[in-house]
Amino acid sequence: MHSYDYWLIIAFFAVVLVPAPFLGRFYYKVMEGQRTWLTPVFGPVERVCYRVAGVDAQQEQSWQKYMLALLAFNLAGFLLLFSILLFQDYLPLNPQQLPGQEWTQAFNTAVSFMTNTNWQSYSGEATLSYLSQMAGLTVQNFVSAATGLAVLVALCRGIGRKSASTLGNFWVDMTRATLYGLLPLCLLLALFLVWQGVPQTFAHYVDALTLQGVDQVIPLGPAASQIAIKQLGTNGGGFFGVNSAHPFEDPTAWANLFEVAAIIMIPVALVFTFGHYVKDLRQSRAILGCMFALFLIGGSVSLWSEYQPNPTLSNPAVEQTAPLEGKEARFGTTGTVLWSVTTTAASNGSVNGMQDSLSPLSGMVALVNMMVGEVIFGGVGAGMYGMLLNVLIAVFLAGLMIGRTPEYLGKKLQAREVQLLVVTLLVMPVGVLVLGAIAASVPATAATITNPGPHGFSQLLYAYTSASANNGSAFAGLGANTPFHNLMLGLGMLIGRFGYILPVLALAGSLAMKKSAPIGQNSFPTHGPLFVTLLTVTILLVGGLTFLPTLALGPIAEHLSMGF
Amino acid sequence: MNMPVNNAAPLKTQESAKTAISALWRPALVQAFVKLDPRQLKRSPVMLVVELTAILTTVLCLVPDSSVPTFVAVQIALWLWFTVLFANFAEALAEGRGKARADSLKAGSEGLSARRQEADGSFKVVPATSLRKGDVVRVAAGEMIPGDGEVIEGIAAVNEAAITGESAPVIRESGGDRSAVTGNTRLVSDWLVIRITANPGESTLDRMIALVEGAKRQKTPNEVALDILLIGLTLIFLLVVVTLQPFAHFANGSLPLVFLVALLVTLIPTTIGGLLSAIGIAGMDRLVRLNVIAKSGRAVEAAGDVHVLLLDKTGTITFGNRRCAGIYAAPGVNGKELAEGALLASLADDTAEGKSIVEYLRALHPYTEPSVQELTGVPFSAETRLSGVDYQGRVYRKGAVDSLLAFIGQKRQDLLPALSREIDKIAQSGGTPLLVCADGKLLGAIHLKDVVKPGIRERFAELRKLGIRTVMVTGDNPLTAAAIAAEAGVDDVLAEATPEKKLARIRHEQNDGRLVAMCGDGANDAPALAQADVGMAMNDGTQAAREAANMVDLDSDPTKLLDVVQIGKELLVTRGALTTFSIANDVAKYFAILPALFASIYPQLGVLNVMHLSSPQSAILSAIVFNALIIVVLIPLALRGVRVQAASAAALLRRNLLIYGVGGLLVPFAGIKAIDMLLTALHLV
């Protein structure tokens, strides 16, 4: 590693961590309707939204109503996007005259963007009109992230409130999350990216004659606005097929730094938001400690393994540094690995290199990051509520050992809570293992895999893990654009999204209704190094025990077969 | 915190002989097989899964498989059966202890009959089992009381040894605070008319039996929650194992079914799943042996959760009676004169307070006492509120300050300042001042004092470390109360307590989210007992209190509330510790089984065989054997319970995580390796 590699890592942590406490507090104030410096600007817009939609902002909802509103909104979003994708050739802003998507692919894409996954079985510049990109995908990029944020604040309220029957108003939470939470930051980032050279235009693709004398079509489009939200909203769906490995998506070193930092900027801030909701920032620090511990473990393994020479090339005549195949050559190994670890730790899924070319261990880190349920920062809102589920599981497992009914922040965890937690524990095994096993059993799958042996299995495993974890990055190699995979992966994304959201909202409702015991010396300590260790081990243990056999057949077998 | 389980009564010794493990393992062994019945096993879903896999493996033994020698498959099947049997054995053993006691109780109640009052007022002999709530029965000396009830007429001595183990008879009478009787106890004198208050199956005896019998036992809330988690984990591991075969096919390999079954059983939480009900039964049994009857396991768990203990001062914190702690002569009276006067004034006083004065003075000033015949005792009367003696024509009296002053015709202001100061000092220190006079002459003051039970202060300190606050409840004035509270080391005081104040205090604590435990006996305690999260009634209290409470202490010792808290905590800690241990075990099992399982597909995974187990078959068999044997090894811990030290939650967590978490990670590595070496040495693989 060179000195600029270290500088990149330091700058990355600085950009992520320095604003986080302030941003976290800002999100708390915004979501609770308190006055901020943005209120004069967005307040009138917010009020107009409510008036037009006929929403009474003071009217709070029970968890059931909140959930129904969320489901209705998501269903509407899905239908709208599905129709746009199917019929884009009849709609405006289609200068390339691109045809509508095939229905299974449209289903897959619509589900993918509604669930904040942004798995793409298509190449944006080759299949989608500007309208599909902007009014279809970008809108979902915003509202799917806002949905995650809304679910998180509902859970925060559930934990923070005492003997309450309501969790807030979904419509209000969505409006505030989008208006105050996402728009301003996206505007800033988009402007910054335009400055750095990302295109933002409705113009026709450019035909150019290259130096070799070959004709080349250079795709353009309103990219900056979509890239900003794709990074900040942990969406990850690139404007161009190769995502941020495309120089128009990620033109400069500065753009690269801010894009990779933007992936986890909001998720990290939301950890602090939780602390404000429960009036105890020690909890935030403990959870952040655990997230960073997991991030650093994964990051170190990944970096170390990428800098190992490839033993299969152990010819003294070949001088090996880090293998560069599939890396973003402009940013080097560290730049690519940092992005790969960050994008899988958060459920972003954008890439600036080829995940498929990662070393087996690096690939396994990416897989594990997703398999633990996208809780290492994770998606906007989704990461934090997923992490809170792990906190509750850790508290329940170890909590009995202090001789009391397990409690988190004064709320007792009883049969109902455990039931809901168990449902969420089943999401990843069902999505990855069951759907993966079905896919593996279909003869057609083996035919579409590019690599034989353990790497081929990793490719399949990665696709189903990415879908179920709502990540969206791909190992490639698996020919995913078949009706079978389009539908199965779509199902995986739905399970991965709503398999969490529905139990989480029920959990929030159940916790809100409980009394809260005062926290004292005999309460289970959920801050401090002991709990951070416990939480980290619990996450690795639960994820590890579930996925170790499958990982053994994929990346572990591949790593060992390379002769390391 | 140590739990004194001291039952001096002779009856108890026989009981413990019957409940010793040595006498129980044989019937438990039989029960272990009886419990293989799936209908019984469905209460423990994890074990049901193990039994199903055992059946499946047994069938698979008959199907020849080239990759697994039949010899190994048979052994795997056998050990799977052992796993279920060991878990059943643990449960049977736990049940056996309670059952031995329940059986002896049941034996006494069989064939009992009762004289029931009919509508016309006549009495008719009916079987005790036909009695219903509200029936009225008459019981005469020598007969057994046919059911729980309330005395509505008569007074009699009752021997409750069958229930409490205390052989000295107790008095039961209508009205007042000693009106409740327990079924299956014997009347030793007189007669009683009793209104039955429990239907068959709801009596104290029935509850005792139900608590310790596994099949009828209701699962406690935490147990239910834990059960759900265990089922969830079982389901996850089922998915893991079931999907492994298609993945293996994808890699052009195939996994032997027997090995997959073995993997499943080692992964699912069999250790805690097998011991869960034994832990619960053993916990209830500890409570029963403490002579406390809980109406449900829920209350026992709640006891582990309490934040606040409301403790009556009298009987719990202090001995029931005040004792003499000193005397103070009035100015101009010498000490000997006062001592003689006070002694004489107390000689005829039969109350504990009077006796304590006599004892104190005898030790202070040896003096030739007159015999009782020479004295004319004047007992305490509500009118004069004085007591004493007339001796050789002299009048000795003692009594409360105002009463005695009135007797000698003086006013409070008339008191000499030195004596007045002394009296105030006594009152301020929490004591009760008495005055003594002889022939109208004021001799001095006696200091009566509440004596705090020895060791109670340390007990409270331990509770405080566990984060439990103690509140002393007393009818005393705030000043007196504060002094005793300081001496006993309680955290808070509820002085001049009335039942309403007590109830309000409980509600207040509960509104703040705290759980409250209390004990009581009087009828006016009933609302507070019902409101408290854990209410323990005294057996010699009123029926109203016994019904309102969710626990009854048969020995009527309020201090036992502290032991109940301890048992509640132990119950939870034991479950948590074994759950953690069980899950942590899985890591080592993966390292044993995965390389063995995938040996034929990816031999390079042999690197994961960190224990260097001798062969794939041996690795899988060792994991299965360890999985079964660990249940047996942990039976004593499950029955005894994990001790709960007085320490903060963080300290408890650190300690238990280290022992059961880290221990759970490491122990199976050593255990599986040892079993592997043994199996190889014995040529069993």
UniProtKB/TrEMBL annotation, chain A:
Transmembrane segments: 6-28, 66-87, 137-156, 177-195, 253-274, 286-305, 375-400, 420-442, 487-509, 530-557
Membrane topology of the entry: Multi-pass membrane protein
Domain of life: Bacteria
Pfam hit, one: KdpA
Gene Ontology CC annotations of this record: plasma membrane
UniProt key word Transmembrane helix: yes
Subcellular localization: Cell membrane
HAMAP family in the record: KdpA (MF_00275)
Classification via NCBIfam families: kdpA
Function: Part of the high-affinity ATP-driven potassium transport (or Kdp) system, which catalyzes the hydrolysis of ATP coupled with the electrogenic transport of potassium into the cytoplasm. This subunit binds the extracellular potassium ions and delivers the ions to the membrane domain of KdpB through an intramembrane tunnel.
Subunit structure, interactors included: The system is composed of three essential subunits: KdpA, KdpB and KdpC.
Protein name: Potassium-transporting ATPase potassium-binding subunit
